[in-house]
Amino acid sequence: MKINEEVKMALEESKPVVALESTIISHGMPYPRNVECALAVEKVIRDNGAIPATIGIIDGEPIIGMTPDEIEEFGKKKGIAKCSRRDLPIIAATKQWGATTVSATMILASLAGIEFFVTGGIGGAHRKANETFDVSADLDELGKTNVSVICAGPKAILDLHLTMEYLETKGVPVIGYKTSKLPAFFTRTSELNVDYNASSPLEIAKIIKAKRDYKLDGGVLICDPIPEEFSMDPTHINAEIDKAIVEMDEKHITGKDETPFLLAKIVELTGGKSLETNIHLILNNAKLGAQIAKEYSKLRKE
Ligand code: PSU
Ligand code: MN
User: Model-level pTM?
Assistant: First the structure.
């Protein structure tokens, strides 16, 4: 594993470090907005007092803290493999490039000693998962790897109810930031409740610390609703999501190709509006993630 100097130093000095994933760059957004977004997210993390570490795999070697040039390459290069827990050993042994999903990013962050990770949305139980078994590896990872994830909630392309049930089974606390409703990525709310409505980054840091003190392996999932001014109309976005899912089924797109297909299709169907929303919410998550990481390192030093 290659850990960049700045990240290594920060970890040695117990400074706050926040991991970022690379699937969102290569499979989640089109070029060049993907690169602009990745660099802007890093800046927000720095502006809020933490060190960013974008994670990806280059020629089989995990990189913890990619350079801006590496991020640019990730954003441009075609055909980078989407890498989850399952794919990691293959990508490493065959010396491929790998864009790490939430699950693989958590694994590599944890190996490097990073405990916080900011992204847009996590994978979850897909609609009809009770028949297809299509449950993202992200959920199992949250159940066992000690990295907490800050996101804007699971996307409504998923079955949110099944996703919450699965997280409960795996023992993952789902915390809403200043909300008691589960945010659904493009929208601030859904019909479901989170497990706890936290009012400050410090309160969240204390919950994570308690989880560690009790040696409860796994992550905490923090859901930060998209700011009001950028949120989408639920009726409109849900109608577009339904259309995208119909087309996915018609085209027999399955497995790891589902999520990237749906993300790209929704951008197309909303005339690019969902992409802008996506970028705003990640920047918003980055701010909260850095604040939580900062509070947590203060708590650890007390
Ligand atoms: N959801 C999003 N944007 C994303 C992803 C999910 O809103 O970019 C990516 C993340 O990398 C996540 C992965 O870990 O998709 C989940 O893929 P799957 O559903 O195949 O597990
Ligand atoms: Mn899947």
Answer: 0.98
